[in-house]
Design goal:
The protein is α/β, with parallel strands linked by helices. The protein has one domain: 3-Layer(aba) Sandwich (Rossmann fold), CATH 3.40.50.1820. The protein is built from 17 helices and nine strands. The chain has a nine-stranded mixed beta sheet with strand order 1-2-3-5-4-6-7-8-9, sandwiched between helices. The N and C termini lie far apart (about 45 Å).
Length: about 425
C-alpha cells in the first residue's frame, strides 16, 4: 500500500508535466560568500545549548541516528568547528549571482584550461549543495594540474537549486522541470553557451534529464547517476518494466522494490508533510543536522571503509551549515512538494530522450541503478554506462577521483559520438 502510494505521487498528475516558462534574465554579478559573524555566533550558541538525548539502548543506526553520535558531533561543532575555512574553500572559485525571472540564482563558474573546454552544468540534489562539489571543480576544469590532459577540461558551472544556499527561493514551490528552465536561461542567455552538457544525481538527475528533453538543441549530452525521468510505463517503485523484462531488469526491479521502508519513509514525509517537518525543525540547527546526517550515513557506500573514514566531522558539519546558515531547510524541501502535485518522473507516453546520454551506476546502498538495457528504453543514444566498484549516493565526496575520471570518460565518448558522420554535431 505504502509503495503504491509512493509510486503514485512520484508519477504526479498528468504524464509529461507543465511546459517550461519563459524567463527574463540579468547580468551575473560577482559574489563573495561571507556569513555575518552574528549569524554564526547564533548558530553555535544554539548548538552549545542544545539538550542532547540519551541513547535508546538499541543497536546503533537501526532506528536512525544514535543520540551519543549526535552529541559527539555537537561537541565538535560547538568547540572546534570553523565555518570560515569552508567559506575560504568556496571563495577560491568565482561565485556569481544572476537574476532570472526576478530571483537571484547563485552559481560557481570556473572556466577550464585550454582552447576549447566543454561547458558542463552540474546540478545538485538533496541533502547536498554546491559545496559538495568543492573537491572536484578544479580537477574537472584544469585536468593538467592533476596529471590529466588539458583536452579533457570543462567550463564548470555548479548552480544552487532555487531556495538552497545563496540562491533566492521562488515565491512558491516549483517543479524540478520548471527549475530547469532557469538553468537553461543561465547557460544560454546569461553565460552565452550555445550548447552544453547537463549532469546531476538525485534531484539534479531529474532536472538534467528534463533539460535534455526540453532543450535538445542546446543540451549536447546529459549524464546522471540516478535515472529520471523514466519511460512512461515504468514509474519509480511501481515494480513495472513496461515491456517484457530481461533477467537483469527483473533482478534490478526486485532490488528496488526490496529497499527497506525505513530508507524511503523520508520521501513520504517530504512529499506529504514537508511544511510540517520544516516547522518542527525551524530554528533548530541540531534537529536539521540530524535529519540530514541520517541520509548521509545510510546513503554512503560503506562497503570498503567505515563512515567516519569517508566523511570527517568537519565535512559533515560543512554540508549542514550550508543549509542552516542560509535558512534553506524549508525551501530545500519544496521540490518534493511538487512531486505530489505537478512534477513528473516519467516521460510522456511513447517519448524518449534522444540526446546522447550517460549513466553511472554507483553502488548506491539505497537507490540501485537500473541495468543498461533498461536505461536504453528511454535513452536510445546511451553512449556511456559504467558500474564502479565504489561510491554511493555522494560520489563527488566519497570517491572524487573516480567521479572526475568518469565524467572525463563521458566527455570523450560524447566527443567521439558527435564527430561521427551521423553524430549530429
Amino acid at each position: 500500500m505504502i509503495r503504491a502510494f509512493l509510486a503514485t505521487v512520484i508519477v504526479g498528475l498528468g504524464i509529461g508535466g507543465s511546459a517550461a516558462p519563459s524567463l527574463a534574465q540579468g547580468e551575473p554579478e560577482p559574489y563573495t560568500i561571507e556569513v555575518p559573524q552574528e549569524r554564526l555566533d547564533e548558530v553555535i550558541s544554539q548548538v552549545r545549548n542544545h539538550e542532547f538525548l540519551p541513547d535508546a539502548g538499541v543497536e546503533p543506526w537501526r532506528f536512525g541516528i544514535p543520540q551519543s553520535w549526535l552529541a559527539e558531533m555537537g561537541e565538535h561543532w560547538a568547540s572546534d568547528y570553523d565555518w570560515r575555512a569552508a567559506e575560504a574553500r568556496l571563495n577560491r572559485f568565482d561565485n556569481f549571482l544572476a537574476e532570472i525571472d526576478g530571483k537571484q540564482l547563485h552559481f560557481i563558474h570556473e572556466r577550464g584550461s585550454g582552447d576549447n573546454p566543454t561547458p558542463l552544468l552540474i546540478l545538485h540534489g538533496w541533502p547536498y549543495s554546491v559545496y559538495s562539489f568543492i573537491d572536484v571543480i578544479e580537477p574537472l576544469a584544469h585536468p593538467e594540474r592533476f596529471g590529466g590532459n588539458v583536452e579533457d577540461a570543462f567550463d564548470v558551472v555548479v548552480v544552487s537549486i532555487p531556495g538552497v544556499g545563496f540562491s533566492e527561493a521562488p515565491d512558491a514551490p516549483e517543479s524540478l522541470r520548471a527549475v530547469g528552465a532557469r538553468y537553461h536561461e543561465l547557460m544560454t542567455e546569461v553565460l552565452g553557451y550555445e550548447r552544453y552538457i547537463t549532469h546531476g544525481g538525485d534531484q539534479g538527475a531529474l532536472s538534467a534529464g528534463w533539460m535534455a528533453y526540453d532543450y535538445p538543441d542546446a543540451v549536447m549530452g546529459h549524464h546522471t547517476h540516478m535515472h529520471f525521468p523514466r519511460h512512461a510505463s515504468s514509474p519509480w517503485l511501481s515494480g513495472k518494466i513496461g515491456a517484457e523484462p530481461t533477467e537483469a531488469e527483473k533482478a534490478w526491479i526486485e532490488a528496488e522494490a526490496a529497499a527497506p521502508f525505513g530508507q524511503l519513509a523520508y520521501i513520504l514525509t517530504h512529499v506529504a508533510r514537508g511544511e510540517t517537518l520544516a516547522a518542527s525543525l525551524a530554528d533548530n540547527p541540531v534537529g536539521q543536522a540530524a535529519w540530514i546526517w541520517d541520509k548521509w550515513y545510510y546513503w554512503t557506500d560503506k562497503s570498503g571503509a567505515a563512515f567516519e573514514e569517508i566523511h570527517t566531522k568537519d565535512r559533515l558539519i560543512d554540508e549542514v551549515m550550508y543549509y542552516i546558515l542560509t535558512d534553506s531547510f524549508r525551501t530545500s524541501l519544496w521540490p518534493y512538494l511538487m512531486l505530489g502535485v505537478e512534477e513528473n518522473a516519467v516521460l510522456p507516453e511513447g517519448e524518449v530522450i534522444a540526446n546522447p546520454a550517460g549513466v553511472t551506476a554507483w553502488p548506491d546502498p539505497v537507490f540501485p541503478l537500473p541495468p543498461r538495457e533498461y536505461v536504453e528504453r528511454s535513452r536510445p543514444s546511451l553512449i556511456h554506462y559504467t558500474t564502479p566498484a565504489r561510491g554511493g549516493h555522494f560520489p563527488m565526496v566519497e570517491v572524487p577521483e573516480l567521479y572526475v575520471e568518469d565524467l572525463r570518460t563521458f566527455r570523450r565518448s560524447l566527443a567521439e559520438h558527435l564527430s561521427a558522420p551521423d553524430g549530429n554535431e
